[in-house]
Write a structure and sequence with these properties.
six-stranded parallel beta sheet; alpha/beta; single chain; elongated; Rossmann fold
């Protein structure tokens, strides 16, 4: 990973205007946010810049207005939530460039914070338009990107702007990039990856990239059924992409060549209906799944074996659950593995980096959120990073 500047590289910034790209795309319930995790993530960066005397202007998107103004998608909707988390008053500015912004900067004192309106109200944002970026840059002395979750988008506020002003990674971005570098960039080996989820088709690029980078690839969730079917296992009525069995075999062949061991479950939890604690629930060998049954979780023996694999590893990247974890008892394998990962991390033998909505939810359900090394809340950006793609917002910081 190329070197990037952080807030530690800033000199005296008193009176300077910091344009800070943050992710304030909060889930709303009525008139306020139902979850302020994203504001909590950027709080250290915003307060550090304010305490150093900068005038902090927050740039963010909110929803998908499609390049047109919409009163319900104005960032003013989250102004109160941002103020509450920061413990400071925030001035709302209904533009992102021009005289109104200039006037607002004149009103702000050193250490004050302004929230610009939804950057996606202007078509130039998603078009990564150079002139639009220049208009925003005209108001700032330097640029800080603290929105890793938007780093996979080549937009004006994530890429073009970073090339027009001295650019720095905020504290949340810095933590994320450092964690990702330690997980797949230059990791301590052996490395294991857990990839779960419903479908192989959504994670093909991830799997293809990982077989060349990790020593152990653990496949769970519905996608494991496709790999089992590729190996000639009759998976009954399980969720399975039968048209992708050739692809699954090709991935396993690549893994063989690269010296990567692919781990598939050999005992599974099955039922004839997908419901909580069904009467038809049983555990069996993968070769004993009946025609009317579906595989809904990894069995206890395979889970124990995976825990033993992780004991031999130094680094773990985790994206996706092992079973249908939202419904009991099909959360058993995911919960057990989460506890194993937490214990190994806590004793210092494993660096564990996890990401993606389902994975974050599963680790929270297991109560181990604060016991793994790093959790990325970025969905698309985390997945593209696992695919080995260069993220425009990150590349722009190291340009």
């Amino acid at each position: 990973m190329a070197k990037f500047k952080t807030l530690d590289d800033l000199g005296n910034i008193t009176g300077q205007v910091a344009l800070v790209r943050v992710d304030l795309n909060l889930p709303m319930d009525g008139g306020s946010a139902s979850d302020v995790t994203r504001v909590e993530a950027v709080k250290p960066t915003i307060l550090e810049l304010a305490e150093k005397g900068a005038k902090v202007l927050l740039l963010a998107h909110f929803g998908r207005p499609g390049g047109a103004r919409s009163s319900v998608l104005s960032t003013s909707m989250v102004q109160g939530d941002v103020e509450e988390v920061l413990g400071k008053e925030v001035m709302f500015v209904p533009e992102v460039s021009g005289p109104v912004v200039e006037q607002s900067i004149g009103i702000l004192r050193d250490g004050d914070i302004g929230l610009l309106d939804n950057v996606r109200f202007w078509p130039g944002e998603e078009a990564n338009d150079a002139d639009f970026a220049k208009a925003i840059a005209a108001h700032g002395d330097f640029y800080v990107n603290d929105a890793f979750s938007a780093a996979h988008r080549a937009h004006a506020s994530t890429e073009a702007l970073a090339k027009l002003l001295p650019a720095y990674a905020g504290r949340a971005m810095e933590r994320e990039l450092t964690a990702l570098e330690s997980a797949l960039g230059s990791p301590e080996t052996p490395v294991a990856a857990v990839v779960g989820g419903a479908k192989v088709s959504t994670k093909l690029d991830v799997l293809k990239n990982l077989v060349g980078k990790v020593q152990h690839l653990i496949i769970g969730g519905g996608m494991a059924n496709t790999f089992l079917a590729a190996r000639g296992v009759d998976v009954g009525k399980s969720l399975c992409e039968h048209d992708l069995t050739d692809t699954a075999n090709a991935i396993m062949d690549e893994a063989d060549k690269a010296g990567c061991t692919v781990h598939l479950p050999y005992d599974v939890v099955v039922a004839t209906e997908f419901a909580a604690n069904p009467a038809s629930l049983r555990t069996c060998n993968v070769h004993e799944v009946a025609a009317e049954e579906m595989i809904l979780d990894v069995g206890p023996q395979a889970t124990e074996a995976l825990a033993d694999v992780l004991k031999t590893c130094r680094t773990l990247v985790w994206n996706g659950p092992l079973g249908a974890f939202e419904t009991e008892p099909f959360d058993t394998a995911t919960m057990a593995l989460a506890h194993h990962v937490a214990a190994l991390t806590q004793e210092g033998s494993l660096i564990s980096v996890a990401g993606g909505g389902d994975t974050v939810a599963a680790l929270a359900q297991a109560g181990v959120t604060d016991q793994v090394t790093y959790i990325s809340t970025a969905g698309g950006a985390f997945l593209e990073w696992m695919e080995g793609k260069q993220l425009p917002g990150v590349a722009a910081l190291s340009a």
